[in-house]
Design goal:
With 147 residues, this protein is mostly helical. It has one domain. Helices cover 84% and strands 0% of the residues. It is built from four helices and no strands. It has helices spanning 2-41, 47-77, 85-101, 110-144. Helix 1 (2-41) packs antiparallel against helix 2 (47-77), helix 1 (2-41) crosses helix 4 and helix 3 runs antiparallel to helix 4 (110-144). The longest helix has 40 residues, at 2-41. The two termini are 15 Å apart.
Length: 147
């Protein structure tokens, strides 16, 4: 049981923290839009504001965190070079954005590249959060279970 907690526990903490961080960004951004809508129009909105956006954001955060689990195992095997793993995620995401969506009509616009770069940097930052929480929780679990 102790070995299972030592190996899986830090990943569970990292998944939880990453889910919350990734989910908080769209919720806060959309909340700012809702506040502006309430001030300008006096309308708090409907089910989209209170159900769909938070649930969708949580699912997005959970999906990112689960996808980061195998990547973190690979990154941890790199040792000190694991610090470049979030950069690799950013470059991979930017390349995927350009290759998969590059044939669409808005691909030549600056906005297309800005959106892709912003999403890629956000994904890399989320992976950095995952790795940071994973390393910190591994240290905590190591101290707690040292006997």
């Amino acid at each position: 049981m102790t070995r299972l907690v030592k190996e899986v526990g830090p990943h569970i903490f990292a998944i939880g923290a990453t889910t919350l961080v990734v989910a908080a960004v769209p919720i806060v951004a959309y909340a700012l839009l809702v506040v502006v809508g309430i001030v300008v129009q006096g309308d708090p909105g409907g089910w989209l504001n209170f159900i769909l956006v938070p649930v969708g954001s949580l699912l997005l955060g959970l999906g990112c965190a689960i996808a980061f689990t195998p990547l973190s195992v690979i990154a941890l095997r790199l040792g000190k070079a694991a610090i470049v793993a979030p950069v690799a995620v950013v470059l991979l995401a930017m390349g995927t954005w350009e290759v998969s969506l590059g044939g669409l009509p808005p691909a030549g616009t600056v906005l297309f590249h800005v959106v892709g770069s912003t999403l890629a940097i956000g994904l890399g930052a989320a992976f950095l959060v995952y790795l940071s929480v994973l390393l910190i929780s591994r240290k905590i679990v190591g101290v707690v279970f040292r006997r």
